[in-house]
Amino acid sequence: MCAKAAAIVAGAGRGERLGNKEGKQFLELAGVPLLARSLLNVAAVPEVEEIVLVVNAEDITRASEDILGAYGIEKVTGVVEGGEWRQESVFKALRALSPAVDIVVIHDGARPLATPDLFRRTIKALLDSDCEGIIAAIPVVDTIKEVEGGRVTRTPDRKRFWAVQTPQCFRAAALLDSHERAFREGVWVTDDAALLERCRYRVRVVEGELTNLKITYSDDLILAEALLAKGGLEVAEPHRPGL
């Protein structure tokens, strides 16, 4: 029996560090909203059969009209109101997925340059493994220091460290179990893989993409535009139906 894959796209960021009051997901990257680019890349993955989008409550109508409707993103089956924290938002979206889903891919709406190929590699790695989770990440190239109170306390071996990206791909039952346990126990973490790790589920890494930027600061947007202008990125081509 074939596994059914679905995706959750977290797009409820506020964008304070970008100095944007309306939410960074609606900022344009080469004329197309960040969130639209992220969703189009996910929708271009044949293995993903449905997508649940998470946005701020006040952005639900705008996302439905200016993103989903404007760019014809038909794989989105639900738009969910986000929580105060990302973990809460993902937990809400999990409960909006159809019960037949076996594999859940989680992606940040602020990573508009993750290629469809990266999603496919992540899903395949999970299906080919005995693990409950696969995450995209890249090896750390800078020297890492542990610092406390402005004082360096340790220099760990950077060979052991990877910078985590999304997509992250999980077996649905393990992901839901990890979220439910964290909710009951009042545990909050910064990514979904950490929830599985604390429940002793197995998580492995596939190499991500250097161009898979997370748009956090204004310089990130400038760099992303330069990468798109350079060409060669195998991302989904935006198209507005009727135009």
Low confidence ranges:
none
Question: What is the number of beta strands?
Answer: 11
Number of domains: 1
Within CATH, the superfamily carries the name: Spore Coat Polysaccharide Biosynthesis Protein SpsA, Chain A
Helicity range: 25-40%
As a percent range, the share of strand residues is 15-25%
Provide the CATH top-level class.
Alpha Beta
Number of helices in the DSSP assignment: 7
CATH topology: Spore Coat Polysaccharide Biosynthesis Protein SpsA, Chain A
Structural class: alpha/beta
Note the main attributes of this structure.
single chain, 243 residues, alpha/beta, Spore Coat Polysaccharide Biosynthesis Protein SpsA, Chain A, 7-stranded mixed β-sheet, two-stranded antiparallel ribbon, 11 strands, 32% helix, globular
Describe the protein.
- By secondary structure, the chain is α/β, with parallel strands linked by helices.
- The chain has one domain (5-230): Alpha-Beta Complex (Spore Coat Polysaccharide Biosynthesis Protein SpsA, Chain A), CATH 3.90.550.10.
- Helix content is 32%, strand content 24%.
- It has seven helices and eleven strands.
- It has helices at residues 34-43, 60-71, 86-94, 116-127, 172-185, 192-198, 218-230, and strands at residues 5-10, 28-29, 32-33, 48-55, 76-81, 103-108, 133-139, 146-148, 151-154, 162-171, 203-207.
- The strands form three sheets. A seven-stranded mixed β-sheet has the order 5-4-1-6-10-7-11, sandwiched between helices. The chain has a two-stranded antiparallel sheet with strand order 2-3.
- The protein is globular.
- The model has no long low-confidence stretch (mean pLDDT 94).
